[in-house]
């Protein structure tokens, strides 16, 4: 019995060390180091590149196959490394870490698990779609809905690198607005999601957790990791690519008009809040998009709406997590993001941005 326990503990240690190494090395290479150098570019140039939405043009290109392909290629070039890392970590959560470890930190239905999920998201700094495989892995390991949502939303709206870029490019008032509303969005939405977890769901999660622990102990962790990685990639990537192509083509519909005549019209604030929630961008992509739109005379109200809605969720990331959350919860998250977008637009006007 002691030999079995020692072997189990040894395997757990190996799994944890492997996961920790992949997470730290991967995030350093894909996120931390590039963003460190990019911060100096933002500080000196007050810009971090062209708008991925429309480049140097005054409006998105018309609907066509070329516009779809061009956007998909530009987006793919920006995020492919982070997507691979997201798949590695999302599968690693399921294969390398014991299920009880996840539930101990993120499985509670109180605010503690939500706080842990939100705090863990800060060094991750992934876009909504790259974070989605990790969220799916956490949910498979029975992390609570609130903790998983806090991790998902926190990756984008609490991204410290984006806040720094935003301060140097748009102004620190925009960073402050994003931070305050972002904290409310991440931790408030997560807390409310946990309030809707029923006793039956808790009991079912406990039973599944016990079964998962037995299955994990019976399989080779690295073979299991490779199998889960392949299954996640096959399931998520094709639909993801198709949706990116469709959204790339639909830019002209989602953002049909950008100009000074829009002003701070309430209808346009709502429209941009909805469009920003549905559209997909790479990490920090909202910064040059908003910069370009403000230069074209867009009102601060619609810009504030995009500030809060472009990063957190999108049609592709919602589709990737359709098996991880109940439809009504995903709908609630989407509606909440839109509401925060409208609030961001109103506050930008009221505060005189």
Keywords:
353 residues, mainly alpha, 0% strand
Topology:
Blueprint lengths: L1 H44 L19 H31 L3 H8 L4 H11 L6 H13 L4 H13 L2 H10 L2 H24 L3 H20 L2 H29 L1 H4 L11 H13 L7 H10 L4 H10 L5 H6 L6 H24 L3
Helix pairs in contact: 1-2, 1-7, 2-5, 2-10, 4-6, 4-8, 5-6, 6-8, 7-8, 8-16, 12-14, 12-16, 13-14, 14-16
C-alpha geometry: globular
The count of strands amounts to 0
- What's the mean pLDDT score? 91
Query: What percent strand?
Result: under 5%
Q: Percentage of helical residues?
A: over 70%
Multimeric state? single chain
Helical/strand content category:
mainly alpha
Q: What is the count of DSSP helices, taking H or I runs of 4+ residues?
A: 16
Evaluate the radius of gyration.
Answer: 21 Å
Secondary-structure element series? HHHHHHHHHHHHHHHH
Please give the alpha-carbon distance between the first and last residues. 67 Å
- Largest β-sheet summary: none
Low-confidence stretches: none
Tally the structural domains.
1
């Amino acid at each position: 019995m002691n030999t079995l326990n020692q072997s189990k503990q040894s395997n757990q240690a190996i799994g944890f060390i492997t996961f920790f190494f992949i997470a730290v090395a991967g995030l350093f290479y894909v996120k931390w180091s590039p963003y460190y150098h990019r911060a100096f570019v933002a500080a000196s140039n007050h810009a971090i590149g062209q708008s991925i939405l429309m480049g140097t043009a005054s409006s998105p290109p018309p609907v066509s196959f070329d516009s779809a392909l061009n956007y998909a290629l530009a987006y793919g070039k920006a995020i492919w490394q982070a997507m691979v890392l997201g798949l590695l970590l999302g599968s690693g959560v399921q294969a390398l870490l014991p299920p009880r470890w996840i539930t101990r930190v993120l499985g509670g239905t109180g605010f503690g698990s939500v706080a842990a999920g939100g705090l863990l998201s800060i060094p991750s700094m992934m876009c909504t779609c790259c974070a989605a495989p990790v969220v799916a892995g956490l949910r498979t390991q029975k992390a609570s809905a609130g903790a998983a949502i806090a991790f998902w939303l926190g990756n984008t709206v609490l991204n410290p690198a984006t806040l720094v870029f935003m301060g140097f490019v748009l102004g620190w008032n925009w960073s402050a607005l994003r931070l305050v509303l972002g904290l409310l969005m991440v931790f408030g939405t997560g807390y409310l999601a946990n309030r809707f977890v029923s006793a039956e769901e808790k009991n079912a999660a406990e039973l599944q957790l016990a079964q998962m622990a037995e299955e994990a102990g019976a399989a080779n962790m690295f073979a299991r990791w490779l199998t889960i990685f392949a299954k996640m990639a096959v399931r998520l990537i094709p639909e993801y690519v198709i949706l990116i192509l469709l959204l790339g083509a639909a830019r002209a519909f989602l953002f049909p008009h950008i100009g000074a005549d829009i002003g701070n019209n309430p209808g346009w604030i709502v429209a941009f809040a909805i469009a920003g929630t549905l559209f997909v961008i790479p990490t920090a992509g909202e910064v040059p998009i908003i910069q370009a739109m403000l230069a074209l005379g867009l009102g601060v109200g619609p810009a504030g709406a995009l500030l809060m809605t472009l990063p957190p969720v999108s049609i592709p990331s919602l589709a990737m997590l359709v098996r991880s959350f109940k439809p009504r919860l995903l709908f609630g998250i989407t509606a909440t993001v839109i509401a925060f977008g409208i609030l961001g637009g109103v506050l930008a006007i009221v505060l005189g941005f």
